[in-house]
Design a protein that fits this description.
Elements lengths: L6 E2 L2 H10 L3 E6 L4 E6 L1 E6 L2 E9 L3 H8 L2 E15 L2 E18 L1 H14 L16 E16 L3
Length: 155
């Protein structure tokens, strides 16, 4: 990272940034070029490792690419504003980037992943099992291998 003064290394600070992000963007390998897709997501720590959860339909390009290569990159950010500085314009933001291995969840793990997603969006009281589309929904987990954060906030 070029700007070491903006790097966020502490996992608690990184988790705080992720907790305030609305959208996770997943980068998948599409041979000729990356395939990037925004998803709703949830977060959890398990045995000291960060896990990210997302849901989608059970078929489609995202699923095809995950089946070909389950190793993904991801990004999430919070953009606050741009503002003038002495020598130009700067952006105020917080962001995370990383990579990890994706796996499809079934049964209790699927329900747990959905609960993590709902909790992230402040719907932890919703009964996931009552969802009429539960059987048509696929849930995936990203086991995070590497993650870093970056921020540029006013001092």
């Amino acid at each position: 990272m070029l700007r070491k003064d903006r790097e966020v290394k502490n996992i608690e600070d990184i988790a705080d940034i992720i907790g305030r992000c609305d959208t996770l963007r997943i980068g998948l390998n599409n041979d000729s070029c990356p395939y990037i897709v925004p998803v709703s997501f949830g977060v959890d720590f398990h045995n000291g490792k960060l896990q990210l959860f997302f849901h989608c339909a059970q078929v489609g390009e995202k699923i095809n690419l995950i089946e070909k290569n389950p190793y993904v990159g991801f990004e999430a950010d919070i953009f606050y504003k741009t503002e003038p500085m002495g020598s130009g314009i700067t952006a105020r933001y917080e962001s995370i980037i990383g990579n990890g291995l994706v796996s499809r969840l079934e049964n209790e793990e699927k329900i747990y992943g959905l609960k993590c997603i709902l909790e992230h969006y402040h719907y932890s009281d919703f009964d996931v099992t009552a969802c009429k589309n539960l059987n048509r929904t696929a849930v995936y987990k990203i086991e995070v291998d590497k993650i870093t954060g970056k921020r540029n906030l006013p001092v």
